[in-house]
Amino acid sequence: MDGNPPKNQSFEIILGSSSIARRRILAEMGYDFTILTADIDEKSIRKENPEDLVTALAEAKADAIMTKLKSSGQLEEILRPTLLLTADTVVVYDGNIREKPSSEEEARQFIRDYSGSSATVVGSVLVTNLLTGRRIGGWESAEVYLLDIPDEVTDSLIEEGIVYNVAGGMMLEHPLVLPLVDTVVGSADCVMGLSKALTEKLIQDALIDDTK
Predict the structure, then answer these.
(1) Is 88 a catalytic residue?
(2) HEC secondary structure over the chain
(3) Which one from 32, 52, 88, 148 is the annotated catalytic residue?
């Protein structure tokens, strides 16, 4: 954090995600945090609308982590404001919701579709104040326009395996992908998994104590 004190000296943050990109974005925002993962079956939660789906998944992740904290007795031990931050991201291409590819064939098809085309990324953020119970969330979307993706780039991404860990097999910040991004309409951090502007707003809103 460049030697500067963290912005959240008066409260704690738990990031409920194993995403490296989300960790990096939250650290870039100047926050100190610990990490807990939900380990839920994301495929068991289905919604037709992408905004509804990412919202429901972020809520399910938060609920699962709160259950973990409660069963271990940690939830009752929280004495200062502690914010649990969960998120989810999907890609929408040609009207179809895409989550993490489940096979090489699917990953390859995803990337092939994006070549010289565009896709919409929809990402949710949910902040739960574990001390007050206040929960507030929202979502953002961004359009990504890509240049033609050479077959050798697709092969390298598949071989590396990183595409299996990201929604829609799309990792904008990858050094092989970044030069092929033509335009992003919206925030790049939304595409990468965590909208900075939305997250900042929700953090501040979640700290409001309605009882005062």
Answers:
(1) yes
(2) CCCCCCCCCCCEEEECCCCHHHHHHHHHCCCCCEECCCCCCHHHCCCCCHHHHHHHHHHHHHHHHHHHHHHCCCHHHCCCCEEEEEEEEEEEECCEEECCCCCHHHHHHHHHHHCCCEEEEEEEEEEEECCCCCEEEEEEEEEEEECCCCHHHHHHHHHHCHHHHCHHHCCCCCCCCHHHEEEEECCHHHHHCCCHHHHHHHHHHHCCCCCC
(3) 88
